[in-house]
Specification:
Blueprint: E1 2-10, E2 16-18, E3 22-24, E4 29-33, H1 40-47, E5 55-60, E6 63-64, H2 75-85, E7 86-89, H3 101-111, H4 118-127, H5 143-155, E8 161-165, H6 173-190, E9 193-197, H7 201-210, E10 216-220
Bound molecules: adenosine-5'-triphosphate.
GO molecular function: ATP binding; ATP hydrolysis activity; transmembrane transporter activity
GO cellular component, one term: plasma membrane
Keywords: ATP-binding, Cell membrane, Membrane, Nucleotide-binding
Length: about 230
């Protein structure tokens, strides 16, 4: 489902980031750990096809995103693949402040080139327990509610892969545990592979206590910059 070999990325005028090899089965959990600046967000951007690898192989849900994948889909085709395959939960949730909760989800369908499907939007909001908030604007939500809405949006199109960037940053222990339980149960419900980038030790603890060893891979990115 996710497989990488000798994956590396170089920012223009920046360091070369070299990543450990990974093999993550469908439905598995990958934790990307490592200190600030070790390349966690970059790895997520590579897996989402937002940036192309400088060298090495990366296959995500059947799509070759590595440097050898010269046939990498471009432009609109890559955007459509991403919209249908990847659910992204960014650290800053990026809900559109001008739109209602419902319309934030409708916009995700629109961005994927799909017709608006109010029933599916209702189902996604209900699965995350925020169906009563559909007509509110993001500014009228608590932090936890906003995170649920962002997660509903991330899984709206039933992605094969959920990428979450520091989902517990700035949360207290109770909220962090709730957030991780929500991510885990949502990924299980959708049968999705879950990738979490974090330097929060609570995340590793949560998944080692709540996931079978077989389905869990943790890699620690270092400052192995060439
Ligand atoms: N646009 C850029 N141009 C040049 N270098 C960059 C750019 N973006 C990130 N970097 C560098 O690449 C490295 C990896 O950054 P990245 O954001 O992936 O790390 P991270 O592990 O996600 O960090 P954090 O935990 O602080 O979010 C860092 O050394 C960073 O300074």
């Amino acid at each position: 489902m996710i497989r990488s070999r000798q994956l590396a990325y170089r920012y223009p005028k920046g360091p070369v980031l070299a990543f450990p090899d990974v093999d993550v089965p469908q439905g598995g959990v990958l934790l990307l750990a490592g200190p600030s600046g070790s390349g966690k967000s970059t790895w997520l951007a590579l897996a989402a096809g937002l940036v192309g690898a400088t060298s090495g192989q990366l296959d995500v849900a059947g799509q070759s995103l590595g440097a050898g994948g010269a046939a990498l889909k471009q432009g609109a085709a890559l955007d459509a693949w991403r919209a249908r395959t990847i659910g992204f939960l960014p650290q800053k949730l990026h809900l559109s402040t001008a739109l209602s909760v419902h319309d934030n989800l409708a916009m995700a369908q629109w961005a994927a080139g799909l017709a608006q499907d109010d029933q599916r939007i209702g189902e996604a909001l209900e699965a995350l327990g925020v169906q009563d908030l559909a007509l509110r604007k993001p500014a009228q939500l608590s932090g936890g509610q906003a995170q649920r809405v962002a997660l509903a949006r991330a899984v709206l199109l039933q992605p094969q892969v959920i990428l979450a960037d520091e989902p517990t940053a700035s949360l207290d222990d109770e909220a962090a545990a709730a957030s991780l339980a929500l991510l885990q149960s949502t990924a299980r419900w959708e049968g999705a592979t879950l990738v979490i980038a974090t330097h929060d030790a609570r995340v590793a603890r949560f998944f080692s206590e709540n996931t079978s060893q077989k389905g869990l891979l943790r890699i620690v990115l270092g400052r192995k910059q060439l």
